[in-house]
Amino acid sequence: MLFLKKSTRFCLLLLFLTVSARPLLAADRKVRLGYFPNITHSQALIGVSRGDFQKELGEGVKLETKVFNAGPSVIEALFAGELDIAYIGPNPAINGYIKSEGQALRIIAGATSGGAALVLRSDSGIASAKDFHGKKIASPQLGNTQDVALRAWLKRNGYRLKEKGGDVEVIPLQNPDQLTLFLKKEIDGAWTVEPWVSRLVREGNGKVFLEESSLWPRGDYVTAHIIADTKFLKENPDLVERFLRAHVAVTLWINSHEQETRILVNNEIKYLTGKSLSDDVINDAFSRLRITYDPVRESLFTSAQWAFEQGFLGDKKPDLSGIYELTILNKILKENNLAYIGE
């Protein structure tokens, strides 16, 4: 009996050591994806709901998804080791890169260009860029992409903010609160992004005063792109490549299936939030967007410069030269005879 017990213990120990030392099998692998229930993340909404990402990742690789409502929360989850890949806006990605001293993340593809605008109440009394003295203009969040663009535009037009002794007040408000205060006439306007631009117009009787696209060369600027955890990217380039193959394929499908895209995206927004957008809002919103895999790199560097000038990125101008890793994306584009994107 003693011999059998020792033998059994030895076999169990040997089995434990063998299992612990074995290489990671495909069945153990996963990709943890973060995204927003927003039309600027259309590839994520469609790619998750239709199963495009899971199909490309293949059997034995599990796609785990988590829905967010704000960029900073995505960066926090990435820092905590809870995400591998995420759709996100430019400024949160910049902040995450700087806070981690360039270590935490890389931008691996674009997702959406355009979609932001300055919307005013029809009775705001603003007819030109000279009429913003004493006005209250909302942005979605302090230091976010639209907030930075608004502050930069006001500065270029000679205004000083109330917080700095001027008479124009920028009020960071979550998008639903913008609409509420817009209707109550407690703000004069908002610099925001779709679908809230169209909702302020359609539901708030607002008017578009300025399309942000008018401020950019060819009207192109990044609204959303894809980031990857640097460690995950280094250790799992094959999974990143499979994910990006699906992303590019969904992007191409979206751009050739306009009406189907709008229906699918709206259905998924309803599934995730409990409420769909009106046909008018979703049609207006998509008319201001370009769904793309191009990260529109130069616009990110310009936005970062604006953020730095406004004191959001510290005292030293950040070095963002290593924030992009587009090698895998360009490989996929080359294989599909699509235009190369500079790295």
Describe this structure in words.
With 343 residues, the protein is of the alpha/beta class. Helices cover 44% and strands 19% of the residues. The protein is built from 14 helices and eleven strands. It has helices at residues 2-21, 42-49, 52-57, 71-79, 90-99, 145-156, 175-183, 196-202, 230-235, 237-254, 258-273, 279-287, 297-309, 327-335, and strands at residues 29-35, 61-67, 85-88, 105-114, 116-121, 136-139, 169-172, 189-193, 206-211, 222-229, 289-291. It has a six-stranded mixed β-sheet with strand order 2-1-3-10-4-11, with helices on both faces. β6, α6 and β7 form a beta-alpha-beta unit. α2 crosses α10 (237-254) and α10 (237-254) crosses α14 (327-335). The longest helix is centred in the N-terminal third of the chain and has 20 residues, at 2-21. The chain is globular and about 60 Å long.
Which tags fit this structure?
11 strands, alpha/beta, single chain, 6-stranded mixed β-sheet, 343 residues, 44% helix
